[in-house]
Design brief:
Largest sheet of chain B: 4 strands, mixed
Strand content of chain A: under 5%
Structural class of chain B: alpha/beta
Helix content of chain A: 55-70%
Oligomer: heterodimer
Distance between the termini of chain A: 86 Å
Shape of chain A: rod-shaped
Largest interface: A-B, 20 and 15 residues
Distance between the termini of chain B: 62 Å
Number of helices of chain B: 3
Radius of gyration of chain A: 31 Å
Chain lengths: 157, 148
């Protein structure tokens, strides 16, 4: 060959570029537009997607709890009670069901949820009677356990 | 590593395995090694010591030993639902290989991807799922305009 310097300038950049590119594009396959095909666009889109996913892991816990509270408020209002009263009175009866379980009960076992609201309502009336009645009434049935057990005490504090 | 970008599945068991008799889901396990390579030393030790005991203890699994001239020592596990799992075991000790094989035999063949919920039930509701008329039956609480 006559011109020899041109071939001295070529570099071998590395054999693995194809697989590095494919690994990134496989996280971008479900994107819309050219971001799912073209590497430069996909790099930026995939980075944003990962950042959103990391942030969303914290936000998911918050939004799930918000959803449970909304559903419990609606379910307890159907039983003529309010959500704060339900939660506080269930806690006073030492029924330590969390919002997720209560929400599932209200959807799949409506009669059990009705019983729980009745329990909370009874405890509430007893509490009001004890507070307003100045102790003239006999002590109530549901409020007999005035001190929470040891485990729940440490959970509360 | 997004939720939509990576595959996920719900928790399940293969055909309610364990409710009646437990069926080992590992169908076939093949040890591919070389007779004289250094990487296959662990596999050769395991074949001398532990493979017969393993084959006797799991009667539903077929064990294939195939010495070939190969550079990477492999264990290929096939499951009853058709999934094939390959593990490279070059330069592993016999003890590690034994643990790996017990792990493979305890697995069902389901994919090891993100499990959406750690629980699953076929009958989610006993008392009947809530619908808008559960607590307001139309006989007691008619809906709609009742004027005149």
């Amino acid at each position: 060959m006559v011109f020899l310097t041109l071939s001295c300038w070529t570099r071998n950049r590395g054999p693995d570029r194809y697989w590095r590119v494919q690994e990134l594009l496989k996280s971008a396959r479900h994107f819309r537009g050219r971001k799912n095909r073209c590497y430069s666009l996909a790099v930026r889109a995939v980075r944003r997607a990962f950042i959103y996913a990391s942030k969303a892991r914290k936000a998911k816990r918050r939004s799930m709890r918000q959803l449970w509270i909304q559903r419990l408020a609606a379910a307890s209002r159907e039983q003529h009670m309010k959500y704060p009263a339900l939660i506080h009175n269930l806690l006073k009866c030492s029924v330590e069901l969390n919002r997720r379980v209560l929400c599932d009960l209200s959807i799949t076992e409506p009669r059990s949820f009705q019983a729980l609201t009745a329990l909370a309502q009874a405890r509430r009336t007893e509490g009001l009677r004890a507070a307003l009645g100045e102790g003239a009434e006999p002590p109530g049935v549901f409020s007999r356990i005035t001190q929470l057990q040891g485990i729940s005490q440490s959970q509360r504090s | 590593m997004t939720a939509r970008g990576t595959p996920s599945r719900f928790l399940q068991s293969v055909l309610h395995n364990g409710v009646g008799r437990y069926v080992c889901q590992l169908k076939r396990i093949s040890l591919i090694f070389s007779k004289k390579g250094q990487g296959s030393l662990g596999v050769r030790d395991f074949i001398e010591e532990g493979v017969v005991d393993f084959a006797k203890s799991s009667p539903g699994t077929v064990v294939y030993i195939s010495p070939q001239s190969c550079r990477i020592t492999k264990i290929v596990a096939e499951y009853l639902n058709g999934n094939v799992k390959e593990e490279t075991v070059t330069n592993k000790t016999s003890q590690e290989i034994a643990e790996l094989i017990t792990k493979l035999s305890n697995q069902s063949g389901l994919d090891i991807i993100r499990i959406r919920k750690p629980f699953h039930t076929d009958s989610s509701s006993i008392q009947g799922q809530w619908h808008p008329f559960t607590n307001r039956p139309p006989s007691i609480d008619p809906v709609g305009s009742q004027t005149k």
